[in-house]
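Same chain as my last thread, 279 residues:
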Amino acid sequence: MTVKYALKHLAARIQRIPANEGQRLAILNYHSVGGGGSASVETNLFNAHLKLISQRYHGIDLQCPLNNKFGKTKTLITFDDGYLDNYEFAAPLLNAYSQSALFFITTDFIEKEIDITKSFRSYRGLKPMTWDQVGRLYELGHTIGLHGRTHRAFSVMSAAEAWDEMANSFALLKRRTGIIARAFAYPFGQLEHRRPDMAAIASSLGIQHVFSTENRGVGMSAIQEQNSTHPIPRLRVDAGDSPLIVGDKIDGRWDYISRIQRIRSCIRLRSIRAYSAPY
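reply #2:
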């Protein structure tokens, strides 16, 4: 554990847990499990995460009706990019614990048109799933969402480029697997990577939920809405996160990180008003 991460953990331990357990939803953001990258979560550790989640929380499934009848904090497990290890190592463990997950795939990566890992030091060399494996995940009860066609930041695109990126990704997933995407996660996903017209673009394709990477939980109402006006935040899970840290993140002790992320985005965007931007 680095000094920086140890300080974050210490700060998290002194945070007060939000008093809304029955209404809270913690969406966990993974990338690679057992893939061998420096940021990949080891399979034994992922197994420990799932054991904790199954014992203490209630996992939800976007393909099923959502309600608040369980008095526990809700969790939703998500994966970004579409790495082969998601299918080989993560999916069997998810199924063993009866946990459903949401897999956001970068369609040209799955298509093997591009290698997104060339610019990802932490995941360099990891292979993508095949389309058959993506379809199999869906058959196993998991949800498939979009993560862009090329993994470019949408903030640097023109309106026409953003539409093409989304529409082509949506069409390719449908053509290869028959799956109609209802969820999308921004690549990178901080405020400076997003765009105010994304809700309209997503809605025009029938996408109901847009996700960011702001590090905080949300109320269940954010995901019960059928069309997200604002991106839904997710909590990043790091390679060295113990079950204790994952539990703290789910409970809300790490939500303070989102405020730091907003301040950093304000600096990068050179706008103090960005702190309260809804998109």
